[in-house]
Amino acid sequence: MAEHEHVRVAVVGSGFGGLGAAVRLRREGITDFVVLERADSVGGTWRDNSYPGCACDVPSHLYSFSFAPNPDWPRTFSGQRHIRAYLEHVTDTFRLRPHLRFNSEVKKMTWDAERLRWAVETSSGSLTADVVVSATGPLSDPKVPDIPGLDTFPGEVFHSARWDHDLDLRGKRVAMVGTGASAIQIVPSIQPEVGRLTLFQRTPPWVMPRVDRPVSGFERALHRNLPFTTQLRRGLLWGIRELQVQAFTKHPGELGFVEQLAKRNMARAIKDPALRAKLTPDYRIGCKRILLSNDYYPALAQPNVDVVASGLSEVRGSVLVAADGTETEADVVVFGTGFHVTDMPIAERVVGADGRTLAETWKGGMEALRGASAAGFPNWMTIIGPNTGLGNSSMILMIESQLNYLADYLRQLDVLGGRVALDARPDAVTAWNHRVQERMKRTVWKTGGCTSWYLDASGRNTTIWPGTTAEFRRATRRVDLAEYEVLRPAVTRTSGKAAETEAAV
């Protein structure tokens, strides 16, 4: 990284959000930008999560950029390897590599109120930027619970997002902690080879069949030669999911029928009534993310698998102790315990106009105007920010909506001209989040009777968008300058010499 480098835009992260932002910048005619990536390759969560069985639970033709359709997806639900390859392809197709700065972890970002720019310190050097786009994503920093005695465990311990591929699991006693989207893919993938597999289940998930199949050669040829068929397929997948939204956001009672389908799915594979009782949730389906799998339940029914219907509470050497007192010996512990979603570590590294970090500002809960701008952090935007997550559709749709907002944000700065910054008004942020939280009250995520990773420490849902993706796209189509303070350098007189200070218009 060049000494004293200055760019118009610094993008942090090279997953879907960061690469999408880079493509949009180039399409807007902006080439003065860098993408800062802490790892040595692109891919984000699809680079980091390489555990056995890792795949997407959203159909491939919907889980891809609208501006970069892929006619050659091998399966209707593609695996990690193919999704990562797709992101590498996007990087090359849109000529993003000259903008990439690998092994450049952001250590600190500080707003310079006098110069109206961000000072960015990374592990490979420093730079300044007029605008920062934070695209680190909510699924980037693994969360491992603080288990008493874990440091005494003599075997291997790792998180699903940091899989140890050098470790041979054959014949070993493996403990899987957690029952989320990663665990239900890992369990059936490793069950045939391990000696004993113990699943520590704090809360059972609702699991529906995964309607996955290979995409035929005819389909791929059709999409390649007639691109509109890819768009048609994507549109159909999108429309079906849009129609489902009301059941999640307005009429959770309608989900009872889906629960019956999920119970039948379980009953087909789990014949033991005692095990079936352990695996049956006591909350409304959809309150936690609905998981898709055809082989999770069959794996749990195998003789070398034990389900402990209690969370891991203590470790005594090689003995794992559950909250209900169950003791299990293990050689390997794998944590599938999620990520720092409502307390993203990047927030501790962003210092705003008043000298406070974003983490301090968000101490009472994450809030951002239209999921993008935080008050007191001028010219700083986040992709997949507060209340932009989805419970039933593709996050790429939300990312592209935020990219529209980013593009108009930069256009507004151009129209205003000169050295200028936009800072979200606190009252605008409050009003937006009040509307979001009012809508949240009727949703299954609030009324479904569960505790999920969607909720922050105070029980507030700061993660999910309580509406359709079409609604969010309309809400982020344009930047409303009335929701922002316009900041410019002001000229004052000091000892006969001109000095610049920040002024709000």
Automatic annotation (TrEMBL):
<dbReference type="InterPro" id="IPR020946">
    <property type="entry name" value="Flavin_mOase-like"/>
</dbReference>
<keyword id="KW-0560">Oxidoreductase</keyword>
<comment type="similarity">
    <text>Belongs to the FAD-binding monooxygenase family.</text>
</comment>
<dbReference type="InterPro" id="IPR051209">
    <property type="entry name" value="FAD-bind_Monooxygenase_sf"/>
</dbReference>
<keyword id="KW-0274">FAD</keyword>
<dbReference type="GO" id="GO:0016491">
    <property type="term" value="F:oxidoreductase activity"/>
</dbReference>
<dbReference type="InterPro" id="IPR036188">
    <property type="entry name" value="FAD/NAD-bd_sf"/>
</dbReference>
<protein>
    <submittedName>
        <fullName>NAD(P)/FAD-dependent oxidoreductase</fullName>
        <ecNumber>1.14.13.-</ecNumber>
    </submittedName>
</protein>
<dbReference type="Pfam" id="PF00743">
    <property type="entry name" value="FMO-like"/>
</dbReference>
<keyword id="KW-0285">Flavoprotein</keyword>
